[in-house]
Amino acid sequence: MTTPDDADKPVTVPWYHWLWVGPLAIFLRVWLATLRIRCNVPRFDDSKGATIIVLWHDRLFISALLANRYFSRPVTALISTSKDGSWLVAFYRLMGLRAIRGSSSRRGAAALIALTREVRLGNHAGVTPDGPKGPRREFKLGAIALAKLTGRPFTVMGINYAKSWHLKSWDAFALPWPFSKIEVTLESMDVNPSEESDEDAARRISHRLTALSGK
Questions:
Q1: CATH number at residue 97
Q2: Which residue from 44, 103, 148, 202 lies 20 to 30 Å from 112 (Cα-Cα)?
Q3: How many structural domains is the chain composed of?
Q4: What is the pLDDT of residues 129-166, one digit of tens each?
Q5: 145-184 b/e with 16+ CB inside 10 Å = b?
Q6: Does any domain span residue 15?
Q7: What's the rounded Cα separation, in Å, for the pair 66 and 40?
Q8: CA–CA separation, 98 vs 20, rounded Å?
Q9: Cα–Cα distance measured from residue 35 to residue 71, given in angstroms and rounded to the nearest whole number
Q10: 107, 113 in Cβ contact below 8 A?
Q11: Is residue 114 part of a domain?
Q12: Which structural domain, as residue segments, surrounds residue 201?
């Protein structure tokens, strides 16, 4: 019998599915290794503390690679509680990233508390502000709440693919062509609670993130 608590629990990947998740991760690592990535900084300066990394959901494909390559501090990613999210958690684990399960509709408060704890411990938080179900590239206010709770700035991760395929999903999830060029831009942006509303802050950061992320 399913209880309300069971329905709210994140979906997990059965152990026997790891038999093919591992080989898939190896295949993806080889694919990622072919990409020609150019970033505006050789290494992001996170010596002064953790930040809240935001990128659009359709650019998640290379997020683990970028987190490992350009950040010195560990990154904890916020992943949805859905079945699709469970596969992403499995992949992230193989790529050396930790994940917290939650979204605006399920386990939102628990996820916000957990991410706040991670940031205060000095770990970056990775958030897709339009996830997990959209609308596409609509910046939700949960990320703003996290910034206000922790007092830490955002790091906007703009990812622009020169050539890519797009899946027929709600976010038009993008897959870069092997050996294609990718422009990555990492910029710090602050939230100013005394000078702007949460909605205005979300709109300002959203516009910048979209400008740096291509179509």
A1: 3.40.1130.10
A2: 44
A3: 1
A4: 998 888 999 999 999 999 999 999 999 999 999 999 99
A5: bbbeebebbbbbbbbbbeebeeeeeebebbebeeeeebbb
A6: no
A7: 12
A8: 20
A9: 19
A10: no
A11: yes
A12: 37-213
Please write the tens of the pLDDT for every residue from 174-192: 999 999 999 999 999 999 8
Q: What's the pLDDT tens digit per position in 67-115? A: 999 999 999 987 766 656 566 666 677 667 777 776 555 556 778 888 9
- 177 φ/ψ angles, rounded to the nearest 5 degrees: -65, 140
Alpha-carbon distance 140 to 123, whole Å?
A: 22
Q: Which two structure tokens, joined as six digits, stand for 159? A: 């990812």
Is 113 inside any structural domain? Answer: yes
Between CA 127 and CA 116 the distance in angstroms is: 12
**Residue 39 CB neighbour total at 10 angstroms:** 17
The answer to whether position 17 is within a domain reads: no
